[in-house]
Automatic annotation (TrEMBL):
Sorted UniProt keywords: Transport
GO molecular function: ATP binding; ATP hydrolysis activity
InterPro entries cross-referenced by the UniProt entry: ABC_transporter-like_ATP-bd, ABC_transporter_ATP-bind, P-loop_NTPase
Gene3D superfamilies listed in its UniProt record: P-loop containing nucleotide triphosphate hydrolases
ABC transporter domain segment(s): 7-95
SUPFAM superfamilies with a match to the protein in the record: P-loop containing nucleoside triphosphate hydrolases
Name of this chain's protein: ABC transporter domain-containing protein
Length: 193
């Protein structure tokens, strides 16, 4: 991958919204680039529909980012990325700065949006949270410290995918979690010494 592309959506950890534009204008900016043949009204309706899809009210469309909570800003960023309908979505620690309840809601939202997607997007999700990775991923790649390299890789079986409620009940998942944490700790210890 080189440079920006309309084939990739990005959700950053710091929301990535232009502060001088309303939530709706931020989403429209991406939509106008992605769908140049659509009318202004069609694009606006797509933006409003995505805001509703991510659990925000239509009134948020006219609000500036400074008027929104952190969770609302991140929902807007997710709405922007999903509204473009890119085949590849890059999510860089998108929930790192959020409280636990908002984080869980947005994790569930991403799972819901991905499940509804047809065809499925490829999502690259960067996180330092092992439990978040196990909940959201079907494949986990652990990168080591400098120089960055793959130190461990595992797959989450589709038929054994954990839910928030069952994540800590499945012994196979608990063993996988322990292995992931051990690999990360080993890599950290190797670089401290």
């Amino acid at each position: 991958m080189e440079g920006a592309s309309l084939e990739r959506g990005v959700v950053f950890q710091d929301y990535g919204l232009f502060p001088w534009m309303t939530a709706g204008e931020n989403i429209l900016l991406a939509l106008k680039q992605r769908f140049p043949g659509r009318t202004k009204q069609e694009l606006k309706q797509t933006a409003i529909n995505m805001l509703l899809e991510v659990g925000l009210e239509e009134s948020v469309y006219k609000m500036l980012p400074k008027e929104l909570s952190g969770g609302m800003k991140q929902r807007c960023a997710i709405a922007q990325a999903f509204s473009m309908d890119p085949p590849i979505l890059l999510m860089d620690e998108p929930f790192g700065a959020l409280d636990a309840v908002t984080r869980a809601r947005l994790q569930d939202l991403v799972l819901k949006l991905w499940a509804q997607d047809n065809p499925k997007k490829t999502v690259f999700f960067v996180t330092h949270d092992v439990d978040e990775a196990m909940l959201l991923a079907n494949r986990i790649i652990v990168l080591g410290q400098s120089p960055s390299s793959i130190i461990y890789e595992c797959a989450i079986p589709e038929d054994g995918r954990p839910t928030r409620e069952t994540q800590f009940e499945n012994m196979e998942m608990l063993r996988m979690r322990t292995k992931l944490i051990c690999q990360i700790n080993r890599d950290v210890a190797d670089h401290i010494e």
